[in-house]
């Protein structure tokens, strides 16, 4: 049976606003972040999308976002957490390495995770979630890095390709069938002006 996964990034947080690396450290949604979640909710409503189930990471920024989008009961899953940036968590984004070093940098120099580790745990968690009976249209709220690493796991099968960053409250719509995730579309209802 073909199912739908709506994988969404949380709204803007105080750390996003202050340009801080935000992994397992949490910070609250800003007023803009709350407005972004409500704009995403409006997009779901306008497109007649109804969820059978919902889940999010154990970070409050994810659960707070989810609660603004739906009143469904939901589960919080550790496997949906953001990448662990180790000792770099909470530090300035200026400390981020060049893209070519990003795959293992935080594991080697910070005691965190590799991109591959994040992608693997996201894939395992989302597969278990989608394989549950009755989970036909599932909203999942996670994080930019975690979503990007999951996207890489299934990029080859994607019907659309990532052409810009995953903005706060962007939505990746996947179909799930026979253990495979296929990306059908990426919606960025909160793309900043000029981007």
Structural class: alpha/beta
CATH topology: Rossmann fold
The strand count comes to 6
Query: Spans with pLDDT under 50 lasting ≥5 residues?
Result: none
Helical segment count: 6
- The CATH class name reads Alpha Beta
Query: How many separate domains make up the residues?
Result: 1
Assess the beta-strand content as a share of residues: 15-25%
Task: Describe the model.
The chain has a single domain (13-187), classed as Rossmann fold, CATH 3.40.50. Helices cover 33% and strands 17% of the residues. The chain contains six helices and six strands. It has helices at 14-17, 31-46, 60-69, 102-110, 115-130, 144-153; strands at 3-9, 53-56, 75-76, 137-142, 171-177, 180-187. It has a six-stranded mixed β-sheet with strand order 3-2-4-1-5-6. Helix 5 (115-130) packs across helix 6.
Q: What topology does this entry show?
A:
Elements: E1 3-9, H1 14-17, H2 31-46, E2 53-56, H3 60-69, E3 75-76, H4 102-110, H5 115-130, E4 137-142, H6 144-153, E5 171-177, E6 180-187
Helix pairs in contact: 2-3, 5-6
Short note summarizing the structure:
The protein is of the alpha/beta class.
Can you give keywords for this protein?
17% strand, 195 residues, single chain, 6 strands, Rossmann fold, 33% helix, globular, alpha/beta, 6-stranded mixed beta sheet
């Amino acid at each position: 049976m073909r199912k739908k996964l709506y994988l969404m990034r949380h709204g803007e947080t105080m750390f996003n606003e202050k340009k801080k690396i935000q992994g397992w450290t949490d910070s609250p949604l800003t007023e803009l972040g709350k407005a972004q979640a409500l704009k995403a909710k409006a997009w779901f409503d306008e497109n007649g999308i109804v969820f059978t189930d919902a889940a999010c990471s154990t970070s409050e920024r994810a659960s707070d976002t989810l609660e603004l989008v739906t009143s469904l009961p939901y589960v919080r899953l550790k496997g949906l957490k953001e990448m662990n940036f180790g000792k770099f968590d909470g530090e300035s984004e200026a400390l981020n390495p060049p893209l070519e070093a990003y795959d293992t940098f935080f594991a080697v120099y910070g005691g965190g995770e590799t991109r591959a580790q994040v992608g693997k745990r996201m894939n395992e968690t989302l597969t278990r979630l989608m394989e549950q009976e009755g989970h036909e249209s599932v909203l999942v709220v996670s994080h930019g890095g975690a979503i990007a690493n999951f996207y890489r796991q299934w990029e080859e099968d994607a019907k659309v390709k990532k052409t810009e960053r995953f903005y706060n409250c962007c939505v990746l719509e996947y179909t799930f069938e026979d253990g495979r995730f296929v990306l059908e579309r990426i919606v960025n209802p909160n793309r900043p002006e000029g981007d």
